[in-house]
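check these tokens.
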Amino acid sequence: MSGAEKRLVVYIAMDDTDHPEIGCTTYHFHQMLERISTRVEDFAVIERRLVRLWPFAPKRTRGNAALAAVCSLPAKNLQRLSESVEDFHHALLDEIESTYPVDEHSPQPTLILADQTLPEHWYWDSVRGFVDWRDRLAAANGSFISVHSTSTPIGIVGASSAIAWSPDADSTWELIAWRKAEAVGTERRVSATAIVEMEREHPGTFANRDPTAGCGLIAPRTPCPVLYGIRGDSEEIVDAAHRFLQSRDDVERSENHAVHRTNQVSDHHLLGSHVGTVLSAVEETQGGHASLVVYDGERIHRLVAFSESGPVNRLLRSFVIGDVVEWVGLPSPQDGAIHLERLRLVELVPRTATRPSCCDRSMRSAGREQPLRCLTCGATHAKVWIVRTALQLGESNHQGWVEPTPSNRRHLAKPLDRGLPQVAKNQD
């Protein structure tokens, strides 16, 4: 190729190709890029992206992720690239029709090819709320070289948002390793010991395991092609951790792997923390879920802590009317209730109090204007009441904040050990 030959930067994105029981969008995306590399001369992938979006999206898998890649190629090969993307989409539709269950989870795979980045607010709209695919398609208005989908291109929202996302210095990385074809559907071999030692050897990785439940978090439990996903603070860190795992006898060999830049643990789905006063007693529902009503000075909100949220649920249950609390959470599109992700007590009202104890018994008043006295040993103490507070639950080392256990956090949620909640910047 001549040194003066023009090269283009293009964006390829994909969403909505998997089913809860089969398939994986990350694997399909990898297959597509591998196939393009063999068909389009001098095609190069600059960066892969894995972007998590609004957790309440009505049609999604648990992580609600879309994929994109920033690529380059000679301008003369653009038509060949466009044909290759279209060919892969046809093959993907054939695979889904022949092997996927036909039910309400059936995917509507969408592929986008664009020669320009997209408006950044498309990403923020999609990570913080519902976007109708019809509105996104209308807004595109010629922004794409091509769109390949079904008659209902739901995936255009995720795919276009993955292109519109603008990574920054706080971005994280995830290396995804895929299984050999013959292993898919069988039990994964990634030992707990290997995960613990990987975390110790490579401390720049995170979300590897949940010590409260004694389980690893890097290997999925569904029959998909993913062997594991290692999350970390840099591309180099996750690559080194992967090589560590693959060098061990207690970890299954992977067929392929790729590193993706991600918006995970970013809190991009949230609008900062809020403070309010508790107005109601705690209400409990079947299953151990709890809720109460608060007022933030402008509006009344219902805070909900599901039983799975562990420390958050227990802290919410300790609140009484008049307590001032601070929370971080996401409004449910069904009823507007705030599904809590973090919580803390700011100021409490008095509870039932007790006297100090001595010799395993409460101390007693010795009379008016007299100190407290232990009836067993005679020791005295200033006349005070000890008030038990919610902050004495012993579950937080982060200025009173508590969060769900690792296995019950959202992919987008920023763990407390990565920094305290902050008010989000205006992204309008």
Remarks:
- Residues 390-394, 424-428 have pLDDT under 50 and may be disordered.
